[in-house]
Amino acid sequence: MKKALFFLLSLSLSATAQTPDRPLSTAQPPAPVSPAVFEDAVAEWWQHPIAVSLRIPYPRTVAGAIARNGDILACEYAQETGKVRRTVVGRAIVDDHCCPALWAADGRRAVVAWTNHNADRLIRLRVGGRSGDTGEWEPETSIDLGAPASYTQLHRLRAESDTAQDTFLVFSRSGNSNWGITTFRVDQATGRLEVTRPFRVIFNGNGKQAYLSTADAYPTTGNQVIRVCTSFNPAAQAHDLHYFEIDAVTGEVRSPVTPGLSGNIFTSVGMPVSEAALTPLLAGVPGESRRLFYVRSGPLPPAVAYADWSVSSPDSATYKLLRFDPEKAVWVSESFGLAGPRIGYKPEANYLPGMAFPTPAYEEVFYLARRRSDNTATTLERYEKPAGDSAYRQTVLTASDRKLARPYPPVGGGPIRLFYTEFSTYGADYTDFSGSMKPVTE
Predict the structure, then answer these.
(1) Do residues 245 and 258 lie in contact, with contact meaning Cβ atoms separated by under 8 Å?
(2) Three-state DSSP class for 440?
(3) What's this model's pTM, rounded to 2 decimal places?
(4) What is the pLDDT of residues 393-442, one digit of tens each?
(5) Which helix (H) or strand (E) holds 347?
(6) Phi-psi category of 60—alpha, beta or left, where left has phi over 0 and alpha has psi -120 to 50?
(7) What are the chain's domains?
């Protein structure tokens, strides 16, 4: 069973192959940008899901966001009517890191979760109504992490859920260097939220400001598996990427990169995983910095989107993709050109426009936003590698003189190819921001 769960463990992953950069293909005609806009609504990294495609009771896409004044938002775009809805579901401090995760599925109660980015110890949550109406929410509740809380990444535990209730695994940061998990269930009849496993730390960054990206592996057989990639603040001195997997049924933790790793997030045996005990998936390089964007979901093999740059030249950051090639049993690194200048904040943090993968990932596709070197325009781009091809094909989806950033394809696909944030303001601090979320349609 373990072989089925952690299919990568049987493969040799000793080397990282580097392929040469290829010239970008000729841009295709832009995909249409929908007139639908979530005004005064900004998305951020380290939350998941941000947007979800739904079909019941009508075709629509829902998304979580934060407003300039700290309002926590549940937004909805109805494809057939073009109607846009923007509902305030809570309040956070003015900080775009407080952007919520919004989980939703047809016929189930939605869940929205957010934090006050290190300002208190709480995850705040609201459960949606039975009808799926984004204007209906149960009263706010909270989970105390026991230390300053940041970020929320929600995964439904399929083996622990049934028609009467959904059980969720939520990843959050506790303090600046530790990440942990909590599980809770949502009663579908009453909307009651109940913690089933209290918060416990599962990853220790050893004092370094840690970031973590999670994604469902969607295995075609066996247990549900959550992929985890960790890294650190670009302003820190450490820039290793680490990768491990969690069996969402048993709680077991294993890594194809660190074969000796053993632990269990549910029983706390062998927890927390120490950053110092992990073999880097990709080691940092002295004099260079790095930003992690996302780990890819399945059922495709894992991949990681990130950017590297010289500490002395943050505007020279290069977008990169590190993906596992099962045929050669190696991780392959490919480069996709300069990211361009940051959208704001300080140069050592380097808030780049960003990259993202579809969820689930059935095809070799990813998206990125790229700022021109003179800081006058941004393009949103799609990269696809059809089966049998050796190189990715580039399509420019849209372009603007505005700062476009943080692309995010809605979970489940649908007619909206991806959302992105069009920033009208991003100042010298992450408390000074304003913008709107916009979709690119097929």
Answers:
(1) no
(2) strand
(3) 0.92
(4) 999 999 999 999 999 999 999 899 999 999 999 999 999 999 999 999 86
(5) none
(6) beta
(7) 1-30+208-409 (no CATH), 40-203 (2.120.10.10)
